[in-house]
Amino acid sequence: MRPAEPAAAGLSAPFRRPAAATLAVHGDTAGRDAHGALRTPVYHSVAFEHPDARSMCLTFTGRKPAFAYSRISNPTVTGFEQRMAAISGGIPLAFSSGMAAISATILVLAGTGTNIVTSRNLFGNTASLMEQTLRPWGLETRYADITDPNAVREAIDSRTRMVFFETISNPALEVADCERIAAVCRERGVPLVLDNTVMTPLGFDSGKAGAAVEIISSTKYISGGGTSIGGLVIDNRNFDWKKAPALAAVSEQYGPMAFIARLRQEVHRNLGGCMSPESAYFHTLGLETLEMRMRKSFANALAVARFLENHPTVRKVNYPGLESSKGHGIAKKQFRLGAGGVLTFDLKDEEECFRLLDALRLIRRATNINDNKTLAIHPATTIFAEYSPARQALMGVRPTMIRLSLGIEETGDIISDLERGLDSL
Ligand code: PLP
User: Fold this and answer.
1) Nearest atom in ligand 1 to 219's CA
2) Ligand 1 first shell, C-beta below 6 A
3) Over the stretch 234-284, which tens digit does the pLDDT of each residue have?
4) N or C: which end of the chain has fewer CB within 10 A?
5) Range(s) of the domain holding residue 138
6) 47 has which bridge partners?
7) Ligand 1 center to 73 CA (angstroms)
């Protein structure tokens, strides 16, 4: 299938443009189901039939938009992408996971002998992808202090193919000023790729802030609460892809659609990291309650951060919603619904962290973030266990630190579980 054009006017035509939260519920009515189903059905079919040989030829050569094979495109997945297009204003493509979305984006834009400028504070698997998986292919990962636009400017050279960072890094909770970093990227002609997993377009409009591409692990908030794995790459339609060396030739044919065309027609198709129709169904349903769930999770995070800050056993709390945390000022300016649903706090040592985790009754000992359930983990001995203590320190991971991802339970119940656990130490 040809890359999807930006969403048609549909729902917005006769009225004022609805808010993103409304579009998350309805999408664009232009794509209504043939039978009037209010939920896009799960199209459990690998292949799709063509009315005649000529249509088949036109479809395979990208001249007729139709479905042929579900690794390339599938109606349920396209429905999810269209809903995301309505919310974000960009051109989305769904993947099997957030990691698949990140990998594909790197493979479209970068190659042997080039580099990515990024932060030391990255989700562990993203850091491992860049440093371990891609290094043997000749791709350099360059670290810069992403909160300092001058440091980013200095790190970029003629071989830099993208600047990459996370809206709020996981788990160091670093917050960069996206508009200022985007201005540096514009000045140097390099696309800014932002992992906006923890905010989604409802919490932070990355395109408006100047990011060329937004990546989301839809596994998190969007899936409806940890139901299934998925990812998204969204072209925010604000970058001139002729400036990206890997897309110069494709730009001649596809103009402003060059990035999404190479992503869909080559890298996504050839890697095979497509989203399953079941996941697309869950993620579309998840969008309908996304803003409500994010608001509750963010409010819980703030309330729990304030509680922990005042507890005598807790040595330190990091949450961008707290005045005492480093990213507070930028978080307040940048984010629409609050400062996110994840916080970290420090106890005396690793042993005390383990004892608290074992004492919890309501809060679950599990990885993942942005679930409906509140989850706790000790990052140094789990997600970041493959890194040495020195390297962990550089990534903002301490043996004394617990990460909490706040769910949507009643605030008092979460606090009471923590209070009982902390008082038992
Ligand atoms: N980006 C961030 C910020 C994450 O936290 C994660 C997973 O935790 C990913 C990407 C990877 O997403 P997935 O697990 O869907 O591959």
Assistant:
1) 15
2) 97-99, 123, 126, 166, 170, 195, 197, 217, 219, 229, 231, 369
3) 999 999 999 999 999 899 999 999 999 999 999 999 999 999 999 999 999
4) C
5) 20-287
6) 69
7) 23
